[in-house]
Design a protein that fits this description.
Layout lengths: L3 E3 L4 H9 L5 E2 L6 H8 L6 H19 L4 E11 L2 E3 L5 H11 L3 E12 L2 E14 L4 H11 L20 E5 L2 H4 L4 H10 L6
Parallel strand pairs: 1-2, 1-3
Antiparallel strand pairs: 3-4, 3-5, 5-6, 6-7
Helix pairs in contact: 2-3, 4-5
């Protein structure tokens, strides 16, 4: 039986795999994401490309130390009008980001990669278009007071599965993509490989 390893400490990604009935181990990759991103500057790499490279690097990092396992790496980027955003480092930056996103549509690019024996054997990237309603400064402050540091754990300063849903007026995309793991394509690959039951 093939062992599955999730190269992530993300509770959301682990929860998605658990609820899908997968048995897996978790081992976070030791990857400096900002350093990897800096190598892509000036190359013309878009948000989808960057998410995919980061997912690849995470999967390969863990696979190198566990060549017999099938390792799943994932990453997500957020872009708006050609600018890419990272997780806000503090609540002041979360506030600024949400003010910038107010009344506009941003794109989440979620990538997943699978590695075995130190090589990428499969990859996929999906996008979701996220339209945030027009937010007042008072509402953003109220929202951040309630969610606190949880706003710092996601690239958009929101968790769609919680109070973050109140920020939106429209969403065009797959729920799993929004949570950072394109689950349906991943499950399809795992079935094709005989890793999970068909």
């Amino acid at each position: 039986m093939v062992r599955i390893v999730l190269a992530s400490n993300s509770a959301a990604r682990a929860s998605l795999l658990t609820h899908a009935g997968l048995i897996f181990e978790r081992r976070a990759a030791s990857v400096d994401e900002r350093a990897v991103e800096s190598t892509l500057e000036g190359t013309g790499a878009g948000p989808d490309d960057i998410a995919q490279v980061l997912a690849d690097v995470k999967a390969l990092d863990v696979s190198g130390g566990d060549p017999d396992a099938l390792v799943i790496g994932a990453d997500q980027t957020l872009s708006l009008d050609g600018r890419r955003y990272n997780k806000p480092g503090d609540l002041a930056r979360a506030y600024d980001q949400l003010m910038t996103f107010s009344g506009r549509t941003h794109i989440l690019s979620s990538a997943v990669s699978c590695a075995r024996g130190g090589e990428i054997v499969w990859r996929h990237v999906s996008e979701a278009r996220m339209s945030i309603r027009r937010l007042s400064p008072a509402f953003i402050r109220h929202y951040l007071e309630i969610v606190g540091d949880r706003a710092l754990t996601s690239v958009g300063a929101y968790q769609l599965e919680g109070m973050g849903i109140q920020l939106f007026e429209a969403i065009d995309g797959d729920y799993f993509t929004i949570l950072g793991l394109p689950l349906l394509p991943l499950l399809g690959f795992l079935r094709e490989e005989g890793v999970i039951d068909t």
